[in-house]
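Appendix B, Record 12. Input sequence as logged:
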Amino acid sequence: VISSAAMALARGDDGLLKILTRGLEARGIKVVGAHEVVPKLVATEGPLTKAVPRKSDWRDIEAAHAAAKAIGALDIGQAAIAIGGRVIAMEGIEGTGSL
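Logged structural output:
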């Protein structure tokens, strides 16, 4: 089991979580997402602050969003920063704190 977990972790934390989930479910334990237990953990769509993005901000938002989705799909990170429509930083395996 440990060697399976170590190999899964080498592919990212998502791989490890999938192995652990399968192991728990094989023992009859139902695994659910945190959002199913506490729905308020999921952010609502749209601005979360009083500040609303200006029209000029959308180019950066869209560029950063595309980059964040790409690195998320690779299980590398989930954050990106764009200025002037160009991505200037992306979260790496080191985590958001190093961004």
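Residues 1-42 form one domain.
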